[in-house]
Amino acid sequence: xxxxxxxxxxxxxGGTNGIGKATALELASRGxxxxxxxxxxxxxxxxxxxxxxxxxxxxxxxAHLDLSDLTSVQRCAESVxxxxxxxxVLINNAGGIRRQRxxxxxxLEETFAVNxxxxxxxxxxxxxxxxxxxxxxxINVSSIGHRxxxxxxxxxxxxxxxxTPVEAYTHAKLAQVLFTRELARRHGPxxxxxxxxxxxxxxxxxYADADRAPVIGPVARLILRRFALSPEEGATTAxxxxxxxxxxxxNGLYWSRGRPTRPARAARNPTSADRLWRISDQLIAQAEAxxxxx
Length: 294
What we know:
The chain is α/β, with parallel strands linked by helices.
């Protein structure tokens, strides 16, 4: 059974295209009020107007968020706290794969920051603002790619020794699933329901670089045309977790194809989940020590 969304406030990152946009449009059509946290404000305003056209009401606001910059994460969280009475559902959807290694303004590896640590920092800053009535929901849009990670690089989170786009991405997605597990363990008793979701192989801008690649481009286009889901299809599991009573009957699960499934062994290690949480707090504290005062 799905819960009514009228009066519910949902924050979604990366809601301007692909799965995130499809999720935002559907949730708004069901009555939710949305906060679109995105890097491109013009794109955010376009989606806001599209939502207004669909719903006939001003159902969304746009907040600037650059997940690669912890200053932006901090300011986004502060803005959300100041302008909303609370958040009922937090959907950490934004992400991507980089073609070259890059560092964030705080010196962190960018793939790790955008896909994992930025969302971790945003969630931690918003924890006290999540409305437990009696529960709130945190949905981390992850990937089956976490299964291909070799494990968390405890001594090389910045990938200084060896970096490849795929390895950096799968590493960040493993961190995301571990974070989901630990968030549920630590804050489940406080009313926080957290789940990770693999949306499926979805035809979005995420795969645009592969589509244009000179060697694998034709193969990528063939795979996308024949096997990829639409963004609307890819959004269904996250929407289910945001609205269904079933999502509240358990906590800290990894979902794929609309149902809970067993994640990789590395993602089920409670010691790793606890260690990652503590290291993430340390990384954020170190970075924020250098941030300018508000």
